[in-house]
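Morning, I've got a small favour to ask if you have a moment. Here's the protein in full, and shout if anything looks odd to you:
***
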Amino acid sequence: MKTLAAKDAKNGFGRMLDMARREPVTIERNGRAVAVVVPIENYEHWEALEDAYWAARAKEGEASGFLGPEKAQKALAALEKRHAAKGR
């Protein structure tokens, strides 16, 4: 992984983008890593992995008894209706 000082990344922004197309580039400020610029393919891959992870967790939750969004909406509406009826 390449490393650039923040000042060099700013002054050579186009160069940094070219570097980041090939491999991640760490940006340092005062000798401390503060950011990483990654190729878009890496980012898209990580986003897809995260989406798949959370979709699997949601399915596991529903299978183990947690309500899905539609059932949760219906349950809340029923509770609100009962609560409103008691308050009259």
The longest helix spans residues 40-63. The beta strands are 2-5, 25-29, 32-37. The chain has two domains: 2-38, 42-87. The chain has four helices and three strands.
